[in-house]
Fold this protein.
Amino acid sequence: MVFIYIGISLAVSLIACTVYFRILRTRMRDELKTDAILGRFRSEVSGLITEMNATTERNVALLESRIGQLSELLEKSSKTASVLRSETEAIEKAGKTYASLARSRPISLTLDEPEHELHEDAEKAESDIVNSIDFDSLSVKDKTLVLHRRGETSDAIAANLGMSRGEVELIISLHDRRR
């Protein structure tokens, strides 16, 4: 009787192994079919493409941001360069003005005596000289000094002669130093 039980258990085990083998073989065939393989491949490729698109969009957004920042920096540097250019031109113009002032002839509108020692007649004579000069034939420096002698302010002289107030004050101060 023991042999019968062993035989029955062996037969049941064999039948169970056969059933499991067939189920496993069916699943393996299903898994190895080309349609199933292509489907999985397509889903993986689709996932990779989606991921690459997201990465590309992020990189493009970063590049656009950097380009915007570079444009702003270029605009700022352009403005700075134009300011520097205009400042350089102003400095060159001032240098030319100073050079022309150094070369220009001194105006002989004052008497040799110091101002505090002038008599009323001498002041009247000087005023007559200033008023009798042909104004248009004078240099810019001489015009500045004549207008100053007439009592005009530095701002008025600058506006009249198309100069800056600083240039007018420089001409006047250089003339006063020479005296």
